[in-house]
Every structure is written in structure tokens, then in C-alpha cells.
Amino acid sequence: MILNKTLTRLQLQSKLKQKNLFNSSIKFKHLIISKAMVHNKVTIIGSGPAAHTAAIYLGRAEIPPTMYEGMMANGIAPGGQLTTTTEIENFPGFPNGLMGGELMDKMKEQSIKFGNNVITETISKVDLSSRPFKLWTEFNEDEEPITTDSLIISTGASAKRLHLPGEETYWQQGISACAVCDGAVPIFRNKPLAVIGGGDSACEEASFLTKYGSKVYLIVRKDYLRASTIMQRRVEKNDKIEILFNTVPLEAKGDGKFLNALLVNNVKENRQYDLPINGLFYAIGHKPATEIVKGQIDMDETGYIKTVPGTSLTSVPGVFAAGDVQDSRYRQAITSAGSGCMAALDAEKYLSELYE
Ligand SMILES: Cc1cc2nc3c(=O)[nH]c(=O)nc-3n(C[C@H](O)[C@H](O)[C@H](O)COP(=O)(O)OP(=O)(O)OC[C@H]3O[C@@H](n4cnc5c(N)ncnc54)[C@H](O)[C@@H]3O)c2cc1C
């Protein structure tokens, strides 16, 4: 809200006073007011486990960041992907599990406790070509930029979906995009399951799901698998996996509450039929949220930000990446949180050298 318009220094000060921001020394510490600009030492883009963990570490190191948590950025609410799911059973510290949204509320509460300045806006434009880095929020692209000495990008990724008829009804009621996250839940135990995709991830997820399901169908559009030879052999050897080549999904069906079948079409025989399944897992790839830094930072061929192995350092000194936006492999809340910690420590070191 502070940044909705280009403000004079006095207007900005008065707005900050109205919002009681001047009363909090911890928040004021990282706001340096120049003519009409807001400057941060550290800015975090994103609001998932990576972002809030980074903010907790930075706050405790007395460099409380400003976090742009997004306003339904990429269709995901503040709090990130975990807000789109139900129970989380694999985040340490919660032996009885908890809802994804609740976990993110707790992380946010904890980061705010240490001075995280959370702004519910989406960053739509970034300029990393000169220092300080420049950022603009959505709908304010023609206004004065926010400037920052360092930047943590933790904008996450989203699983690609097929948007089949019935998908909305049975999303998280039988349909998932994460076998590791959801495979073990009771509704899938000893039930027929299906994985859609023909690459390494699909083969890996199908193999993983055989621990829980009575049978796993691997639904492949083409008449071959794209996966590496070793992964192909693994699924071919597994008695619980049946590969359905030349098959495309058409509709998710169920009793209104849970998924119980998938209408598929064998495109070679032009034959449609209901495949009785209780779980459907998409393994057709993820899209990292990296549009805003495209062309300004090194990325791999699928758009994930490249980091120096074992660190959060990107190709631009002072810019750090954490969470799913730089991790096409593990994609878990705990690994995202871990890399958020790394980004905070890396940013802290960078800033201490900058201000030496
Ligand atoms: C349905 C589902 C179930 C899952 N279940 C589990 C589970 O049980 N256990 C587990 O460990 N993991 C689970 N995961 C994976 C886990 O959610 C992710 O690994 C984790 O959330 C990634 O965290 P992140 O910090 O990288 O960011 P994300 O959670 O991806 O959040 C990124 C946030 O940044 C915001 N953002 C993006 N662009 C911008 C921008 N330009 N400006 C401002 N904000 C922006 C987005 O709106 C989003 O809110 C699940 C994922 C899904 C989809």
C-alpha cells in the first residue's frame, strides 16, 4: 500500500506514521527513505516455507527483511503451495500432522515476530542490471521502484495440471501432483492408482506408489517412455505397474466426494473406457515462477534458477534463490525451508561484506 503511488518524502512519512510503522524501530531499521523511494537491505519475493524461514533467520540476525508475499501470484495464495493441500504429515515437529494452511500461518507468525515486514503485493518487474536492484509491484510498474541491496527469490513453482473435467471436484480428493507428499494417505492404501506422464518423474512416482497401492497404471500418451533406460527397466520389471501406452485421460469421475475412475481414450484403437482408480497423480512437470527474472539470471532449460551447488548463490552477486524455484528434484516443504535458511545466511554474509 505504501508503494501504490509515487509519494513525496513527506507523503511517505505521513503514510508510515498513519500505519504506525514509525513506532516500531525494528521495522524502521530497514526502511531508508529517499525522495520517493523505499529502500530495503534485503527483500524477499515469495511466501512459502523458503521465504518465511529466510525471514526468521534474517530477523534474528537483526536484518529484518521486507517480504512481498504476492497477491494470488501465479494463482497461488500467500503462504504458497501448502495452502492448496490438506494435511501435512511429514513436516518435523508436528507428530499429529497439521493442515498446510495452518503450518504456513505458524511460519508467518514466527517470521513477523522477528520483524518480517510482510506486504501483500506481487512483484511484477525486476531490474538486476545495476545496484541497488530495482523492483516494481503489480499495477505500479510506471512508478518509482523499490530498491534493495540484496534479494532472495523464493517464488516457488506450480505443478502442471491437465484441467480435466472433474479435476476441480476431486483435486486433493483423489487427485494429486505429489506422490511423495500424498502417496501414504489412507485413501490410497491398497487401492488401484494411476500416474500420468512418461518421463523420469512419472516412472519414479509410479515405482514409489507401488508401496501403497494395490496396482499402479502408468498412463502414457505416446507409444514409448521418455524416461531414462534405467527408470524404464525399473517400471517394466515391477509387477504392480501396468503401462498404458497411447492413452490419454479424458475425465475424472467419482461419487461427488472421492475419485473412483478415470475415463481414458486409447488413441490407437480409438477406444474409450473407465479405468477404476482411487488415486490419480500428475507427473507432467512443474513450472517454476521465474518470469520476472528471465534473461537476467542463469536458469536451466526448464526455467529453474541455477544456484552454485550447496549454496543459494545465483549468477548475480547479491541475489539468492531458495525453495522450489531452484529445486526441480526434491520439491518438499522441509527442503524449501532448509534452502531458505541457506539464503538468509548467504545474504547476511553478502551484506556484511558490502557494508564493511
Ligand atoms: C497439493 C500439494 C501438496 C503438497 N504436500 C506436501 C507435503 O505433504 N509435504 C511437503 O513437504 N511438501 C508438500 N508439497 C510441496 C511443498 O508445498 C513445496 O515444496 C513448498 O511449498 C515449496 O515452498 P517454496 O517456499 O519454494 O514456495 P511455494 O510454496 O511454491 O510458494 C511460493 C509463493 O510465492 C508467491 N509468489 C510467486 N511469484 C511471486 C511474485 N512475483 N511476487 C510475490 N509473490 C510471489 C506465490 O504466490 C506463492 O505463494 C505439496 C505441494 C502441493 C502442490
From TrEMBL:
Single GO BP term: removal of superoxide radicals
E.C. numbers: 1.8.1.9
PROSITE patterns, alphabetized: PYRIDINE_REDOX_2 (PS00573)
Annotated GO CC locations: cytoplasm
Cofactor(s) this protein cannot do without: FAD
Cofactor comment: Binds 1 FAD per subunit.
Domain FAD/NAD(P)-binding: 41-340
Protein keywords: Disulfide bond, FAD, Flavoprotein, NADP, Oxidoreductase, Redox-active center
Listed InterPro entries: FAD/NAD-bd_sf, FAD/NAD-binding_dom, Ferredoxin-NADP_redctase_2, Pyr_nucl-diS_OxRdtase_2_AS, Thioredox_Rdtase
One of the record's GO molecular function terms: thioredoxin-disulfide reductase (NADPH) activity
Reactions performed catalytically: [thioredoxin]-dithiol + NADP(+) = [thioredoxin]-disulfide + NADPH + H(+)
Superkingdom of the source species: Eukaryota
Family of the protein in this entry: Belongs to the class-II pyridine nucleotide-disulfide oxidoreductase family.
NCBIfam families xref list: TRX_reduct
Binding partners and assembly: Homodimer.
Protein name: Thioredoxin reductase
Lineage: Eukaryota, Fungi, Dikarya, Ascomycota, Saccharomycotina
